[in-house]
Amino acid sequence: MLSVNRTAMPAVKEMIDRREELGVAVARQENGATCIDCGVHVPGSYRAGARFVEICLAGLATTAITVERVGDVPVPFLHLTVSHPALACLGSQKAGWVLKAGDYSAMASGPARALAMKPKETYRRIGYRDTSEAGILALEADTLPDEGVTGFIAEKCGIDPENLYVLVAPTRSLVGSVQISGRVVTATLHKLEEKGYDVRRISQAAGRSPIAPVKRTGIEAMGTTNDCNIYYGSVCLTAEDYDPVFATLPSRTSPDYGRPFARVLKDAGYDFLKVDSLLAFSPAEVTVNDTISGEVHRFGSLDPDVLLESFGFSRCNSPEVQAKAEHEHRQV
Questions:
Q1: Would you say residue 327 lies in a domain?
Q2: Number of neighbours of residue 192 by Cβ within 10 angstroms
Q3: CA distances for 49 relative to 65, 167, 243, 289, 321, angstroms
């Protein structure tokens, strides 16, 4: 059986070896744990974000970054293909561990979750447990963990701290933007999981999502990064057969659809209990290839207007206004 921590390790070693090129920093703590800063005190990079995504997906995915258009606006996009989707997405990348150690808190994802069994129900559903001596955990946090936190993580994973590798990227960072776009496939499988579908019936998956611009605050960043998947994320699944649950996957099925996610949160008084819990786990569109019948089903559609509003494009950014400004400049 594959070890998600072992299959992710080559990408971790690449990030360590190419730290300067990738814009990350690596520190070895006194307890032996390795901490890789991907955006707290360093700029990071698109390539670091791509490696971050591949590590979170246990090395079972390939990524590529391109520039495409949302409406008339050029925007960077992350593309990914995922093999062993249930294992890579739910067994590794899913942010299934709300890490709390003393005063430190973070959303934790990545291969080491399979050592700590966070959450146990997910691993029961996919029938998996890892036994690696090394663990790799990715944290969405604004600060780096100290030795007390890494020691706590190592203990929960049943490994020595010197065999622990922790990657950290704030939501409000370039790597943070890339890694959340890289969750578009995992979010879809998580929604299927929540609806009781056996995700092991998904044999292959691919996805594409815009990469959000880095915003001023963490709340803004949380909204814009999620909007990339909600309003412009595309997912293609290869499944053993058709299931009616597929029709419920696109974000348009949510009662909270139609406004930037940050505004949805604000209108709810920042009370997550008042927001459709599955909205953030919904892509804009899903295509499913039923390998039994050979049929292909498509659900949902892209919504460039809401996404560009979320990004912060206003009337002054419109092509008409820019064309007028360019004309006036030429007259001068």
A1: no
A2: 27
A3: 10, 11, 34, 29, 33
Domains in the chain: how many in total? 1
Average pLDDT of adjacent 10-residue blocks, the chain of 332 residues: 96 98 98 98 98 98 98 96 98 97 97 98 97 97 98 98 98 98 98 96 98 95 97 97 96 95 91 83 97 96 97 63 54 56
pLDDT attached to residue 262: 93
Q: Is residue 266 part of a domain?
A: yes
Reference 227, options 318, 312, 139; nearest CA is 312
Q: What is the pLDDT of residue 1?
A: 85
Strand pairing class (34-37; 164-168): parallel
Query: The whole model's pTM is what?
Result: 0.93
**Does a cis peptide bond (omega within 30 degrees of 0) precede residue 244?**
no
Torsion of CA 252, 56, 8, 20, to 10 degrees: 120
Give a yes or no: residue 330 inside a domain: no
Rounded Cα distance, 248 and 51, in Å: 31
Count other Cβ atoms within 10 Å, centred on residue 182: 27
> What is the DSSP secondary structure assignment for residue 88, as one 8-state letter?
I
Strand order in the sheet with 97-101: 25-28, 34-37, 164-168, 135-140, 104-109, 97-101
Burial 86-122 (b: 16+ CB within 10 A, else e): bbbbbbbbbbbbebebeebebebbbbbbbbbbbeeeb
Question: Among residues 162, 140, 255, 235, which one has the least CA distance to residue 192?
Answer: 235
* Amino acid sitting at position 64: A
Residue 119 maps to which CATH number? 3.30.1030.10
Tell me if 329 is assigned to some domain.
no
Give, as one character, the DSSP assignment of residue 91.
Answer: I
- Looking at residue 99, what DSSP letter applies? E
Report CA-CA distances (Å) from 14 to 22, 98, 169, 280: 10, 27, 17, 31
Q: Which uninterrupted H or E stretch holds 310?
A: helix 304-311
Question: What is the C-alpha separation between 147 and 155, in angstroms, rounded?
Answer: 12
Residue 113 structural domain: 4-322
Backbone angles phi, psi at 147, to 5 degrees: -65, -30
